[in-house]
Amino acid sequence: MNEVDKLTELFTQFPGIGPRQARRFVFFLLRQNTGYRAMLIRAIQDVATHVKQCSRCLRYAPLHVKEPLCDICADGNRDTTQLMLVEKDTDVEQMEHSGAYAGYYFVLGGSLSLTGKKYAIREKELVQYLQKYGAALSEIILALSATPDGEYTADYLATKLKDDASVQTARVTTLGRGLSTGSELEYADAHTLVQALKNRA
Amino acid sequence: MNEVDKLTELFTQFPGIGPRQARRFVFFLLRQNTGYRAMLIRAIQDVATHVKQCSRCLRYAPLHVKEPLCDICADGNRDTTQLMLVEKDTDVEQMEHSGAYAGYYFVLGGSLSLTGKKYAIREKELVQYLQKYGAALSEIILALSATPDGEYTADYLATKLKDDASVQTARVTTLGRGLSTGSELEYADAHTLVQALKNRA
Amino acid sequence: MNEVDKLTELFTQFPGIGPRQARRFVFFLLRQNTGYRAMLIRAIQDVATHVKQCSRCLRYAPLHVKEPLCDICADGNRDTTQLMLVEKDTDVEQMEHSGAYAGYYFVLGGSLSLTGKKYAIREKELVQYLQKYGAALSEIILALSATPDGEYTADYLATKLKDDASVQTARVTTLGRGLSTGSELEYADAHTLVQALKNRA
Amino acid sequence: MNEVDKLTELFTQFPGIGPRQARRFVFFLLRQNTGYRAMLIRAIQDVATHVKQCSRCLRYAPLHVKEPLCDICADGNRDTTQLMLVEKDTDVEQMEHSGAYAGYYFVLGGSLSLTGKKYAIREKELVQYLQKYGAALSEIILALSATPDGEYTADYLATKLKDDASVQTARVTTLGRGLSTGSELEYADAHTLVQALKNRA
Q1: What ipTM score was computed for the predicted complex, to two decimals?
Q2: D42 and chain A: CB distance < 8 Å anywhere?
Q3: Which residues 6+ apart lie within 8 Å of A63 measured at CB?
Q4: Looking at domain B78-183+191-196, does it have CATH number 3.40.1360.10?
Q5: pLDDT per residue over B146-164, tens digit each?
Q6: Smallest CA–CA distance from A183 into chain B, residue
Q7: C3-52 classified as CATH 3.30.413.10
Q8: What is the pTM assigned to this prediction?
């Protein structure tokens, strides 16, 4: 396998990238000057060096020097009574971008699977998190995807949290379900309409 | 213009049909036997004869013989305290299909437009409806699209309803907003997340 | 089944129309005034009355009064030495629209199927056509789709035509294969490139 | 700008990658172990070290040790009488993959633009190529995209080649145009049909 094929193969492991686009990436890199490639390599090294897993929420982010915490977890002004459980690092960014939430996060690292294919949520780490920070919580928001796997994971977590001594006083909630912005009734599925009606206000 | 072109042109007025598909419709009809075309013509005539606008909710539906009401409006077992305002006839069908609603409907016939392009809701008819049936209502659900036009229409109606003497005691609600079934956090827009968070439960 | 459901079902038989769009057609028709529906019914009747199968090329088209021929088949100025075999009525229109062909057509009414699902070309009628008009032909163009079924049909017809005494002197050709207008090499499949190279000029 | 943002920005320069997918790349890299990132960095360095521009066809490829030539240009068994001009490196790979061509290539590095936006073909280098290898050529194949820019470039090159003393005896051809594999007559544009008819055989 030559160098083009080898780099192509590594790029096909990138999320959403097939062989053809991976190959275009390789030729794109070859056409760039040495400076761009050096910058890219440097940026990959830098991101790996400076961006580590936050010891509290477990998302990857630039950490503080003194303590291994991300900006959010190190921010003393956030609401310590609220915790949001999300699947992915980017979910934290999406939610922050919305500007509507001021509590803390915990990144599950995925969801459980109804078909049993992957089983990859950080359950042990969540238990430890709650032992440490659970006493202050008045609400735990299960912010999982509105998919069968996401709902299955939320149900599983809700049951676990009910039995967790560290958070007995916290209310467990889920994100509101209903019509998403931009959608029309005519194209909404029955389940969404049921939820939208139930959650009317 | 020959007969093929003429029928093609009429089919292009059907919702969502371009010239090429309209033409395919024509050739499809030509290839069918006389029986199918006769059935189609008969069905168009029948639908126009038997399916009329319900005098109460204003949707098109097969009406009862004794009184000009659709099945829903003629059904005495439904909840007379609830009224849902929808844009289109098919919205009624979608909502009925969800099985989650047991009140009555009123079809607005469209929405107001922020850009002023169309102005076509049955406002006068709604006022008359409320004069007749408003006293019994404890809730009016504004089930409009989660689009800028839909929200503008809902806001407009909410203001009007507040001042409407016929329904002073009814609560005005809107359908729940949030994650629609099947959606993932990663692809949700900021506005949907804000709503999903606000409507968590 | 009520009238709305019945007309919906008839519209779902239209090519490319699913139940939801069929239903939108019905409500569209109900919202139109009586005039539009009358025009539509009249146009369907007219097209069935005046547009008949041409006795020569077998396509549906408005026919001449004196003889049951379409405009093309009745046009004495076209090239009697060329015959193009196409699958569908709309293929004739597409080819005429290109303005590149001045011979006659014969509509096969479909293609043979490699998987044996449908077997619907007008083979007997083609034999009769060639007995009547074959002597004048110097070329028969097999203008079938560039799909497996289309190629299978073209191969089948080529073999049959070779043995057909009525057209012994006619050359049998197929449409050129290669890069279609607008396509880039990068996205062309291997088979198209092989053809494009073979047919370079 | 932190390290995540910086690497995200570099990935958005990759062909076809928007900000959201670029960010997913970054988090994907962070989740991988050190080994994968090291391999990726190494592969980028290796591809830049070992994959150079072939001095003859100007495409990027692993070059031979003794002479700066790619596999194709170093292969003495290929047909020295044929030269194919292509836009991009990947076009060479696509054509090789088809297995239908045994001559040599020259990579133009792009196409001319009808709207004048980019002007980036290696014209000087082509002249030099032809001075060196033109005497042996009996055919030059202009394998450009079947787009307006591609056709404009082909026309431009055809004119230039006619006046080029180095290749006076070579025939200049273009790839065949017509129905591409998988296409149906019904969806073919008029221009493709004109070409398909012209190139019938």
Answers
A1: 0.83
A2: no
A3: A50, A51, A52, A54, A69, A70
A4: yes
A5: 999 999 999 999 999 999 9
A6: B146
A7: no
A8: 0.76
